[in-house]
Amino acid sequence: MRIGELAERAGTSARTLRYYESQGLVRPRRSANGYRMYDEAELRVVHEIRSLLAIGFGLDDIRPFVACLRAGHHSGDVCPDSVAVLRRKLAEVDDYLDRLGAVRRRLHDQLAHAIAQREETCLRTRRPAD
Amino acid sequence: MRIGELAERAGTSARTLRYYESQGLVRPRRSANGYRMYDEAELRVVHEIRSLLAIGFGLDDIRPFVACLRAGHHSGDVCPDSVAVLRRKLAEVDDYLDRLGAVRRRLHDQLAHAIAQREETCLRTRRPAD
DNA sequence: CTAAACCTTGTCGCCGACGTCAAGGCAACC
DNA sequence: GGTTGCCTTGACGTCGGCGACAAGGTTTAG
Fold this sequence. Notes:
The structure is a homodimer. Chain A is mostly helical. Chain A has one domain (about 5-125): Multidrug-efflux Transporter Regulator, Chain: A, Domain 2 (Orthogonal Bundle), CATH 1.10.1660. Chain A is built from five helices and two strands; from the N terminus they run H-H-E-E-H-H-H. Chain A has helices spanning about 5-10, 15-20, 40-55, 60-70, 80-125, and strands spanning about 30, 35. Chain A has a two-stranded antiparallel sheet. In chain A, a hairpin with a 5-residue loop joins strand 1 (about 30) and strand 2 (about 35). In chain A, helix 3 (about 40-55) runs antiparallel to helix 4. Chain A is elongated, with a radius of gyration of 25 Å. The N and C termini of chain A lie far apart (about 80 Å). The model of chain A has no long low-confidence stretch (mean pLDDT about 90). The interface between A and B is medium-sized, with 30 and 30 residues. Chain A binds a DNA duplex through helix 2.
């Protein structure tokens, strides 16, 4: 299939597919007139890329998964390099969850404090000489 | 004080302070020779900015807090606009925590699956005709 | 006098995953 | 043969919070 069809079937754009190619992630054949030609396997590769991008991976992190698929494995995550990336990403996510949790607590406290202050000000305003 | 001293006291750079000024967050007076002159109140403003940036706010989100401080409040978060931003950010963080938690579960499952697959492959390799 | 250490404005660079033209070639249909 | 719609490469724009550099003015110390 040509780039337009692949883009539509993968739910993305032709520009995006050319970008993936420039990053070495997708490798289409070329037809006689220079058009990029993709097979079904490339569709699966693009799906893998999109799926991993969606959960916060960068293209560099995704490279091992694509290589794993291209090596003939039915899943992109069974190869050692992919597993290593998964472990690292899990650790990163855990770390980020911790920090985001701390941010949440701080936001919550700050909000509670601000509202308490506003109520106090309101009381003083309503009874200035209480 | 001049920009260099403020930068050092606020733990940042002169470039950063000029950038905040270009975004309308800091407003120094100018001395006769054109140098930016800051007072203590501006140091507190910069501290507020840095503190909020550190927990993931953008400069646009921070603007109401600075305005609140500049309006004479002892804390930047007691004004209605600031409270509104705090509420919105808390909601955003909660949302992000949810999605990140989902990502974590997915990563965890994917990792468990990949390892299970590898062990299975390993067993088949050690006992090809079992 | 000069060097050092400040300051000024202006401009370009960075990161990452693309969007968005521009200018042209190729294919198919009426 | 003209129009439409696909495709090609190339290059610049986006977002945010600055870093880094250039080319110059100011002030202070020796």
